[in-house]
User: Fold these one by one.
Assistant:
Number 1:
Amino acid sequence: MPRNVAIVGTGQTKYTTARNEETYEELIHQAARIALEDAELTLKDIDAVVISQAPEALFGIDHPERWVVGAAGAIGKPVMRVHTGGATGGSAAQAGFFHVASGLFDTVLVVGAEKQGDTPDAQLVLNRIMEPRYELPFGLNAISMTSFQAVRHMHKYGTTQEQLALVAVRSRRNALNNPYAHIRANHTVADVMKSRMLCWPLKLLDCPPRSSGSCAIVMASEERAKGMGKPVAWVRGVGATSTTYYMGDKLSGLPFNEHGDWDELALAAQHAYKQAGITKPGDEIHVAEIYAPFTICEVAAKEALGFCEKGQACPLEEKGWWDIDGHLPTNPSGGALASNPIAVTGLARVAEAALQVMGKAGQRQVDGAGTAVATAIGGTLQFHTVMVVSNRL
Amino acid sequence: MTRRVAIVGIAQTRLETEKPDQILDEVIFEAASKALADAGIGREEVDSITIAAADQIDGRPISSMLEACPAGAYLKDEIKTTEEGSYAAILASLRIMSGVFDSALVVSWSKCSEVPVTRVSNYGAEPFFHRPFGLNYITTTGFMVNAYRAKYGLPEMAAAKVVVKNRGNALNNPLACYQTPVSTEEVLSSRIVAWPVRAMDMAPLCDGACALVLASEERARGMVQPPVWIQGMGWATETYYLGERDLSRLTSLEVAARRAYAMAGVTNPLRELDVAEIHDIADYHELMAYEALGLCPWGQAARLMEEGVTEMGGRLPVNPSGGALSGSPFFATGLVRLAEAALQVRGDAGRRQVKGAKRALAHGSYGFCGQGNSVFILGE
């Protein structure tokens, strides 16, 4: 049995296009400080640090984690950076969990920052992640590769562009309740439909903003967490799956190679649910923070996470199933469609899920949120992480 | 009580100045599949994959997108760390110790022949003030050596002897990149690359990959290879800012070693260890590591070397494999050290075997002037 681990503090800073007034170090420091204050701990209490940092090409410094050791309060401590592309934040939270669960450490800080605002053209960088010999020259990037997923889902399940637009409308409406969110807006389906087409069927408002900002969580052993005498979020299950890189392989229609279905995310979820003792995710999970930078990603993720039958996420959306007062509220924070600081988007999902089960989510709090799930995706939608958190052991 | 972790599969590719006939994917696949074969298991029997890689060394952002599958990760629980090779073994160990996983394939690699490593390492310098000065892993080694020499007056000859020792040891290692002996004269007449560091003081870069299979105690029992236990591990990082550091000491290595020794119950490393594989980014670096690892007092490394303690046949042979000075697959070098230390404990090190080696130390290092360091203690 793994040692029990809890999230005992979270810290986020405002997500916005560019944080020009602060350096990368300062963003790291801010989130770390806020999380420590939230946990009512000091740097002296931290045994090890995990840095959540996605591709450095997005802001032009090789191994930025080495630069920010001081800002993260980690001088002389065990430090490790985790980088799994977009899934980085989810992987970093899991690495933090493994640090404590191993029994070697009692209190671990997981912190990261994104300064995408310094990047002239993120999509140029995200074109360079593609397979260089055959796929890169086609102009694939994060938007175009995800449009394939939308096309597959529409083809298989009859999903419409208007249904996808509802995901964007709900997410950014939820963001109105989140003071850290980047895009907070009362968009309509018509607004989404008439926004500029970027790569059919994904339009500008189906896509995330480019955000900068920082996020941190503090994780502690059961003994430490219980001694704190305050609500904490217990990590009840973790899972991750990597799958093929090649876009061509994802369009084969074969099991685990169907871009519209994300069976590989289902594998990660099954691993996490088994540890958490969850058998009916659609009922036993009360709120979900899903890393869905594009509208279609949230749809495919909810189906893979077992929240509903395949092809049912959109019809249920029309009934308000996923709304903040619906059956299973998803992304009450606004999710990645409202804020997408790539290095910490996955970590923010974990932090938001933790806030929900701690009952500390403020205006975006979901009533009765006892168990929450947080996901992240990275690469060519190929790296998946799932973490289940709960207010009880 | 933490769960024990064992190394049950070990593989390296041959280290070579270049591998023009293999793309990076194939180099990685070779190491990963050989490690599984060494462990006597199939990919389906491994439940986690942990890799260590650096985007800039691999030449593309999020390089694990392409390289995770050759490393065995298809439909597996895979995670990547970016410090250096040995950190993948650390993270994999934590994952097994947690009880969530029972086994792990650990993989790291570099194909230095295709990368301007020196320039890439300059991109790791703080961009506003440090990068324009030309900081890179070679020039900063110069800083470190100057700081050490200013304090302890180390003669160049003492460092050159480390190269001669390691290159001599590499004659016994069929996987080493350079299997030819060198003389101190050759080292001391090689060109200066960052005063007083000469070209042959630095570990020459090469291509290669390394992979290990780790397993929990229950899983390790009954596997084909005798388990090599991870008795201790420690890692630590110094501040990035060189001006704030005492460059004459590998401070974070001292901290990492203290943690690993405490976990393994080592109190007198020189007496209790049988062999050490040290990440010798430069010959000077190996000497400074002797001190940080507590093998001798500060400033006394040259004497330890002179007394032949770290030679094959000495009390504590260091780098019987030839070390990085006989070929360094930059990012994977720390994992190669761990693999070599494990081979020694298993008694499978061939002609480079230290007789009766029961307990070994492996060291990994990264960053300017050894900013971050890891230490493993392995035992039977």
Number 2:
Amino acid sequence: MDSRKPGAELALNLRLLDHQIMGPEGELLGNVDNLLMEEVDGHWFVASLMTGPAAAAQRQGGRMGRWVEAIWRRMHPDADPVPVAVPLRHVTKVDSAVHVDESAARALAQTQGIELWLRENVISRLPGGLAGDDDDRGPVATHRRRHPGFEPDPGARPIGHLLGAEVRDSEDSSLGRVIELTATTDDDGTEALGRLRLDALICSTSRIGGELGYTLTPEGPWVVRRLVQALHRGDRLVHVDDLDLHAFLAAEKPEEGRATTRLTVRRNAEVTHPYDR
Amino acid sequence: MKKVFAVALGILTAIGGFVDIGDLVTNAAVGARFGVSLLWVVPVGVLGICVFAEMSGRVAAVSGRATFDLIRERLGPRMGLLNLLASMAVTFLTLAAEIGGVALALELASSVNAYLWIPFVGTALWIVLWRVKFAVLENAFGLAGLALIVFAVAAWQLGPDWGELASQAAMPSVPATEDVAVYAYYAVALFGAAMTPYEVFFFSSGGVEEHWKPENLKLMRANVFIGFPLGGMLSVAIAVSAATVLLPRGIEVATLGQVAMPVVAATGKIGLALVLLGFFAATFGAACETGLSVGYSVSQYFGWQWGKFVEPLRAARFHTVVLLSCVAAVGLLLTTVDPIMLTEYSVVFSAVALPLTYFPILVVANDRTYMGEHVNGRVANALGVVYLVIVLVASIAAIPLMILTKAGQ
């Protein structure tokens, strides 16, 4: 995927969320568990990627999410733990993995609590824990460090609030729930990936198959394609300009995880099936 | 020359590594009970695992992503987690069955009770997974597993009426003494034994461990399309020799010793030695694969560093999961559950869990953004969809058949 091309479309749920985060040496540093958005001059941008139990719990929401977050808080050595967030300028490339630069890799490696604890207390105490096939990599992180540059901005909002939110049209009939968000790369020439401007959201009345990769383009073997198309014929694409995201996100509580209010599409807005965009 | 050697080694280990405790027990049990009338399931299952493994191996080589990465990505965190729990339950059950199989093979060789061997086998397994390099582990047990060719020799030595067998196998019918539901239940079990989800977790993660690139696709395909069917021939040989020796005498397979009986009857002492070596290598090799698969899948779901290509300290969570699953599998076996019964259940539950992993792979193998020119072609998709249907039918039918037939009794 050539994500550097300005104006390229990126489906955030399909291509970013739940993808592997990889450091410059190929080290595996967690999955993208949530994304943070922020508003700049009336536009919404993807601000940072989040990973780790706290971010996953927040996206999960509900009782299970609250439990996981409570356990994470209790087990964390800091009095007031903060989840890790990698600002988008540290992302160098997006293909089947999300590649981050060296400083982000270091920050992620030094904040994975369970990994560091197991390294120190279990694996390094077993004979042969240091031997392996690779000799040409840098030192192994064994101690936790706080990285203030890799913490969420207070104004940023998790995307988990938008995914799953109910959308209604101006006559107050439901268009379904948000299953996908598209962003456009808006290259200002300073960063490898460019900025990701939130463009549109896609809502669906079907709960199955939203992330299979058929939401924006029909692909795959005929039978599967037809089946998913039939399930998703009611999908609708709504431009963010036709929604009041600001009011919606302001009403949402970050600790809730799931959306509690609805999004309403403006009158006279153009709402189409994603294939007809 | 080096290239020829690499191809030959890959094919040989694919043959030797194809058979595990599930294939040994299920094929012998089916042969002893149904003769060759269920043998048609083996090629169906073998072609299925070829299609499935080729797709997952291709995705791994092109994108660098192994199976559970893709499952979470395409099903989302919630469905992915349910999938992880189900797949891990089946893989863990298989791991316990393989460790039990190693212990039973050692019991046959030493006359020391299998339950005394189990803790020892569990420890040895963990040491191998902890210390031995990936390539060594894969090749050593795969090559030693070739000893199971003795089943083919035995089938030949026993000299059944090949024409008669061939016509029975080509025109399968339910034996007069058996119920249709029981026949169908064993068909699902045989299919589950040939097409086990862990094989794909291991195959695709192994591709990442060995740093496959698109250039390696030819080699991968040779392993899959030559090695797996030849390995499947071993399954056929096990069933045929059981059908020749055990069926006429009315012996039903309840122990690993009975699986070996036809070989001993046909080839004597040397056959016994080879069959024991084959049992040990096949089950120990598969125990390594399932043990690693548990670690691979959990780590890939959460995005943790995994693999034996990094030193253990860099993949502490992965190695902790592997260690814990070895301990838990030994614990399960020490409840004195019968490993053969565990095997019979594990192959049926494999069939149940199969669509969960099969479907996301089929979808990703069609994703142009990931796969570029290596996306599924017409043949791969036609076969892929046919098998999607077969896999779904087997999965849906498995549990009702199990209840209806009281697990094939």
